[in-house]
Known about the structure:
With 91 residues, this protein is mostly beta strands.
Amino acid sequence: MNGEANVKEWEYAVFKWEQPDGVSPDFDSRVEFSHRNVSEVDIVDFLDTLRRLGDEGWEMVSALAVSHRHSERLYHYFRRPLEPNRSYADG
């Protein structure tokens, strides 16, 4: 071995889904990215958003559910290989 490790670099995304009272159909959600100027995308449907992220090559690496009083929050963490030639201005 020559002492140099082949280290893969990643970009990350967090899909945040919050139901303020834990039961109503009203929700607040967004996707934030580590390497994009655009930090939020329109989200209409939970499963559609997961499908779109998968179609774009994002791999879910972790999920966290948080309950606080009456609110429910879900955090889904994604990664994909950082590509030097990809345009990060719009995804």
